[in-house]
Write a structure and sequence with these properties.
The protein is mostly beta strands. It contains no helices and nine strands. The chain has one domain (about 5-119): Rieske [2Fe-2S] iron-sulphur domain (Rieske Iron-sulfur Protein). The mean pLDDT is about 95. It binds FE2/S2 (inorganic) cluster.
Length: about 120
C-alpha cells in the first residue's frame, strides 16, 4: 500500500446504510475521489469511481446506497455493487468491481490505510 494512514472522520459521522463520507486519495499519482460507508456496523471504503466509466457514484454528495439501503448504486447508469467487497452485482459494470480501500476504525475514528488493490 502506497499511502500512509490518515484520519478520515469521526466514527459517528457514519450511520448504518446512511450517507458516506467523501475524501480524496492519491491513486497512481493522481488525486482521486474516495468514500467510506457503514454497513451492518462495519466500515467499507472504495474509490468513488464506477467500474463502467470513470464517473463518481453518488446521487448527491455522500449518497451511495440505493433506495433499499442495501447495495451501492452508481447514479449515472445504475450499476449495482456489493457494499462488502465492491463486486458488481448488476448493470453495466460487468465484471469490474470497485477499487477497495483499506480502512480501520478505532478509538471513535475512521482511518484510511491505503489502496487494497495497489500491491
Ligand atoms: S458510469 Fe456508473 S453505471 Fe455507467
Amino acid at each position: 500500500m502506497a499511502d500512509t494512514e490518515r484520519l478520515i472522520c469521526a466514527s459517528d459521522a457514519l450511520r448504518d446504510a446512511g450517507p458516506g463520507v467523501r475524501f480524496e486519495v492519491c491513486y497512481f499519482g493522481e488525486p482521486t475521489a474516495a468514500f467510506v460507508v457503514r454497513w451492518e456496523g462495519r466500515v467499507y471504503g472504495y474509490l468513488n469511481r464506477c467500474g463502467h466509466m470513470p464517473m463518481e457514484l453518488d446521487w448527491q454528495p455522500g449518497v451511495f446506497f440505493g433506495v433499499e439501503g442495501r447495495d451501492l448504486v452508481c447514479s449515472t447508469h445504475g450499476a449495482v455493487y456489493a457494499v462488502t467487497d465492491g463486486q458488481c452485482l448488476g448493470g453495466p459494470c460487468g465484471s469490474t468491481p470497485l477499487v477497495r480501500l483499506a480502512v480501520a476504525e478505532r478509538d471513535g475514528a475512521i482511518y484510511f490505510l491505503g489502496i487494497e488493490d495497489d500491491g
